[in-house]
Amino acid sequence: MKILKFCPECGQESLKWDGEKKWFCDNCGFTLYHNCAAAVAVVIKHGDQILLTRRNQDPGKGKLDLAGGFTDPHESAEETCARELFEEMKIKINPSKLNILMTLPNVYHYKGIDYNTLDIFFELEVDEKFTPELEITELSEVVWLKKGEIHLDEIAFDSQKKFFKKYLS
Ligand SMILES: [Zn+2]
User: Fold this and answer.
1) Ligand 1 center to 36 CA (angstroms)
2) Model confidence over 113-167: pLDDT tens digits?
């Protein structure tokens, strides 16, 4: 977070990170908040099987992931789920069928900035199993696994490991 040093208001090298959620300029009082961003992940389920994607890019290339992503401005979390599922797998869902499971705090590191997120986990029961068309640069395959076949060390991200530990128990 220390890469932002220069105040965009007064131009002095006086911007300070408070260690939690904002930058503040001692010189002119400029303040820039860096609040939590919302992100979603969707457990698509058919009976006792769950759809997971295998990542085709780092971080976590080759490991398992849930479909999802960051919520855009002015979007509901359910709308984010529908948009991400369409972008990643070209499937259309009814957002009212989503059930919220839990939320967990997480940190997403990207190019020198830590983004604090609130990850919102949803479940979507589908009538039949399907094999989606893939956005191949991001995902290499999808797999349908029974709960007992999901191993935490195969999950790409620590936040989802925490989720699966609770979800599978
Ligand atoms: Zn300033």
Assistant:
1) 23
2) 889 999 999 999 999 988 877 766 777 888 999 999 999 999 988 889 999 999 9
For the chain, list the domains and their CATH numbers: 1-35 (no CATH), 40-168 (3.90.79.10)
Going by DSSP bridges, is the β-strand pair 67-70/99-110 parallel, antiparallel, or unpaired?
unpaired
Nearest to 121 by CA among 67, 169, 79, 57: 67
Q: How far is CA 113 from CA 3, 64, 109, 130, 164, in A?
A: 8, 24, 6, 37, 26
Spell out the alpha helix ranges (H) of 90-148: none
**Residue 32 CA, ligand 1 centroid: distance in Å:** 11
Q: Give the predicted TM-score (pTM) of the model.
A: 0.88
